[in-house]
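Weekly sync, protein design subgroup
Attendees: M.S., D.O., the rotation student, P.L. (late)

Item 1: inverse folding check
M.S. brought a backbone from last month's batch and wanted to see whether the design step gives back something sensible before we order anything. D.O. pointed out we never logged the input encoding, so this time it goes straight into the notes. Structure tokens as presented (476 positions):
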């Protein structure tokens, strides 16, 4: 689940970002081949309802075979009960067999899209006014196409990395939270050696332009919040509506939800979010910078946090656990006392915060013993925050400076989640790093008319191609 869209207002909240068209990279004779890969991948429907990830994985496997990658270094994996959910695993062999590989991870499934809702056919790649439009144009087929293209180019260049470079194009990331099949979860549980790596480069972070279209912020994501749904419910024997009782299930739950809606979990910084606000305070306007410094204090300034929240919901989400009421159902007849009412509360929990602690806090805030609180759906996956060492930051900084001189690397924690949650939990450090910049308006990820800036895509392609080489040849 790509979260560059959620992060698109990081600088815009204080600076009003415009379209990013500065600093174009030199013309690349291989761009046409990359465009063909990108187009083919996008135009294969990979939605949960009618799509076929296996078909998309096979198309990319054929591209790699045509470039000379040995068939024995590639496989498409899916369980028998999910034949259309295939994941492509491919390896470019390195010189040192004693070193663990790096893993390039991108999911090829996409969110649903209905033709009648879109201006353009969501499953036809359209280039218009400097933008690509299509479902998956950004999330996450941009990185999937770039990684496939890079493996092809490495082969064509005769590049022999120091360590193996492993590619995983996986399926199910967009619907894993709803309980559907997910390649990464399945592989970690059943064939952990397939995704074993020293570290992983994944979606989860992008770049930001200033008001003049100049790239100024490149995010490096480490850590993500825990996704957890809770079910809140009240039951009652009910009765005839003409004979009301002192209590009413809908009213009781509504009153509890009002208390929960007004509740703010405490601010809790970790090394990544602290580094984020410290860095961003040097890039935003003075009033916003002062509030950022105030939330770093002991104790954090809640009034400052509230002002930051008003400017950018992402800033509040990075500071604390958040919960919202997302669904509610209740009653069985217009002329009856309700027998049952329930609501779904969706929480995004800070790393290292036990789900049980949040559940207990919700119950305390509801302050009504008639409201039962239980977990719903897949249990929240607790994953540690991987360390942002110089071995990770250094190569990103070096390549970024070549492409976008003066850009600032900003560590960030994802307020949502990606498949990185399974890998971090399995002890494989996973980082969000794309080099894909956005305007303040974003790429409409998961929404109508999803898009990707053409120039930003080509620069991201260059960035990832070069930075992966540095990682593959590094000591880590």
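Designed sequence read out in the meeting:
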């Amino acid at each position: 689940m790509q979260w560059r869209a959620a992060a698109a207002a990081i600088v815009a909240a204080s600076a009003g970002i415009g379209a990013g068209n500065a600093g174009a990279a030199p013309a690349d004779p291989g761009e046409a081949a990359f465009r063909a890969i990108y187009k083919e991948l996008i135009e294969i429907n990979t939605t949960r309802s009618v799509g076929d990830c296996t078909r998309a994985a096979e198309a990319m496997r054929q591209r790699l075979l045509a470039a000379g990658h040995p068939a024995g270094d590639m496989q498409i994996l899916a369980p028998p009960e999910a034949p259309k959910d295939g994941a492509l695993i491919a390896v470019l062999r390195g010189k040192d067999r004693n070193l663990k590989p790096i893993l390039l991870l991108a999911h090829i499934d996409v969110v649903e899209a209905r033709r009648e809702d879109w201006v353009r056919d969501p499953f036809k790649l359209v280039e218009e006014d400097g933008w690509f439009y299509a479902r998956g144009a950004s999330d996450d087929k941009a990185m999937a196409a770039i990684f496939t293209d890079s493996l092809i180019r490495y082969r064509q260049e005769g590049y022999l990395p120091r360590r193996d470079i492993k590619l995983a194009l996986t399926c199910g990331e967009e619907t894993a939270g709803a309980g559907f099949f997910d390649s990464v979860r399945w592989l970690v549980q059943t064939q952990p050696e397939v995704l074993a790596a020293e570290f992983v480069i994944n979606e989860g972070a992008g770049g930001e332009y200033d008001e003049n279209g100049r790239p100024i912020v490149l995010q490096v994501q480490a850590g993500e919040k825990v996704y957890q749904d809770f079910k809140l419910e009240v039951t009652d024997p009910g009765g005839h509506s003409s004979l009301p009782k002192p209590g009413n299930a809908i009213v009781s739950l509504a009153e509890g939800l009002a208390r929960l809606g007004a509740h703010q979990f405490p601010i809790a910084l970790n090394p990544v979010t602290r580094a984020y606000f410290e860095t961003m305070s040097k890039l935003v306007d003075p009033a916003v910078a002062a509030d950022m410094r105030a939330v770093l204090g002991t104790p954090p300034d809640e009034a400052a946090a509230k002002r930051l929240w008003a400017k950018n919901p992402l800033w509040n989400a990075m500071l604390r656990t958040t919960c919202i009421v997302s669904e509610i159902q209740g009653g069985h007849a217009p002329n009856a006392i309700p027998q049952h009412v329930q609501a779904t509360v969706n929480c995004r929990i800070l790393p290292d915060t036990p789900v049980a602690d949040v559940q207990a806090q919700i119950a305390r805030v509801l302050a009504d013993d008639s409201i039962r609180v239980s977990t719903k759906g897949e249990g929240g996956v607790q994953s540690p925050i991987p360390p942002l060492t110089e071995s990770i930051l250094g190569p990103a900084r070096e390549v970024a400076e070549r492409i976008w001189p003066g850009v600032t690397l900003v560590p960030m924690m994802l307020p949502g989640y990606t498949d990185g949650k399974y890998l971090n939990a399995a002890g494989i450090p996973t980082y969000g790093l794309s080099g894909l910049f956005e305007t303040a308006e974003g790429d409409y990820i998961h929404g109508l008319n999803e898009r990707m800036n053409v120039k930003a895509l080509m620069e991201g392609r260059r960035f990832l191609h070069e930075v992966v080489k540095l990682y593959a040849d590094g000591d880590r």
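Discussion: Residues 363 and 373 are 7 Å apart (CA to CA). Confidence is low (pLDDT under 50) at residues 2-25.
Action: P.L. to compare against the previous round before Friday.
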